[in-house]
Amino acid sequence: MWDVNVATGLSVAPVGDFLAGLKRTVGAAHVIRGVDDEAAPYRRDWTGQFSGSPIAVVKPKTTQEVAEVVKLCCDHGVSMVPTGGRTGLCGGGVPIGDGTSVLISLERMNSVRHLDQDGRSITVEAGVVLQTAQERARDRGLVFPLTFGAQGSAMIGGVLSTNAGGSNVVRYGTARELCIGIEAVLPNGSVINALTGLRKDNTGYDLRDLLIGAEGTLGIITAAVFKLFPEPKARTTGFLSLAALADAPRVLNVLQDRSGGGVEAFEYMPKAAVDVICRVFPKVRKPLEDAAQTGVFFEVTSPREDDAQSADGGGTRLESLVFSALEVLMEEGIVVDAMIAQSEQQRLDLWAMREAILEAITENGPAYHMDISLPLAAVAEFVATMDEAVSEMGFQPLTVGHLGDGNLHYALSAQPGRNWADLPLARAKQAAFALLAKLNGSFSAEHGIGQSKLDVMIDLKESSQLDAMRAIKTALDPSGLINPGKLIPVPRDP
Ligand SMILES: Cc1cc2nc3c(=O)[nH]c(=O)nc-3n(C[C@H](O)[C@H](O)[C@H](O)COP(=O)(O)OP(=O)(O)OC[C@H]3O[C@@H](n4cnc5c(N)ncnc54)[C@H](O)[C@@H]3O)c2cc1C
């Protein structure tokens, strides 16, 4: 007797046979039944919003084992959900429904295969934790730059599949721009090995680019090659109070020009966000005495030894470059107040404050998170218009963002004394997405679509692009077995 997979509509072979096959492939110790206690962390996503019980969690150790697991799932008509560090924020890494999919966890594929010192690249398996890759590069005097709050848990496969960004995209780009090679198992179980790490390779469609940002819907990434960079020799980190958000592009560009393009972080941290962090984490100290309505946390770095040398007036040469930029901006009345970290501890405290925001908002109470991007020049208009509109509806906007690349995390929470459930969330979302469309913005900047933004995707993504995505998906995964129900919305009835 065969069951029907509710996610794909296909028949599923009896679970007993199937589990035995999985155990033969990866070893019994590396297959957990979905209903077991040990599988509990895999059944729910980081936000707690999405859950689903898999048939089993299977943990292959090699690319070959991944390929065999995929073939076995195909043979049995079982859908598959790849999973890494489970820090994704859109419900992409949990199954839809119960008992229909297998979770393929890449966590045991955690080797750093190679670090090419001359070519300045690193080859890592999909289950390597981002922070581990950073540390391995640092051990060799190089930098793996991708940085964000979940770096201690997020894994390379997840990072690539969501095309993660974070706080230094302004300098180094997103995961896509850093990746120069990929190895993956396609939905039919075949392996593509494109781990050459070549900086130039124009030999047809770029399957690497197709898999990056595909959220596990086109195959399972098993390893990748990334660019590495020289380690900064000097750093200047600080917090600014700006007269107006509309001045942020000028501040960014003056800092860039004076430092030779050295801005590594340029993060929007307005008063409301800093207040929430300090309330939820009382040990965090406000960076400026007089709270900055328009706060910006920034870091400028330089890989040049010269910039780490002492300057005439004290401090490093890089610091004096930053001071000279700030002097100009203060004379123009654009920067109202500034704090520069005077020790490594102060620098780390500023970073810890920045990275605490998502947890602080989550602890603060119910909220709806938008992860949007805009042309830099349109950010101030978006924030001013939306803040006014949603405040009238009873929301308190809590915004932070990777301002340097026009990416805002615009969260709506309830004003004190207002009941979240009574607030007109649909109206607020509609207002935000209409304004985004008018300002040429994107409704999903760096976290992806997963399950959580399928409704927005079908409303706002150009239908010709959606059709092309569906055609690619069908060509590579005709049975729809890889991560069904994610990223690509089902077309609406005509
Ligand atoms: C506190 C916090 C801060 C964050 N800050 C940022 C930020 O600044 N910038 C940012 O971009 N993101 C951020 N995120 C989101 C998240 O960390 C990233 O999306 C991360 O890249 C996900 O990696 P993961 O290993 O946890 O993936 P998972 O959550 O395990 O999976 C994410 C998606 O990738 C797919 N997937 C996982 N592994 C593979 C694989 N090997 N092959 C194919 N598909 C796979 C899954 O099916 C799922 O669709 C943050 C999250 C948290 C909790």
UniProtKB/TrEMBL annotation:
Keywords: FAD, Flavoprotein. GO terms for biological process: respiratory electron transport chain. The keyword Phosphoprotein does not apply. One of its GO terms (molecular function) is FAD binding. It comes from the Bacteria. Belongs to the FAD-binding oxidoreductase/transferase type 4 family. This is FAD/FMN-containing dehydrogenase. The lineage of its organism: Bacteria, Pseudomonadati, Pseudomonadota, Alphaproteobacteria, Rhodobacterales.
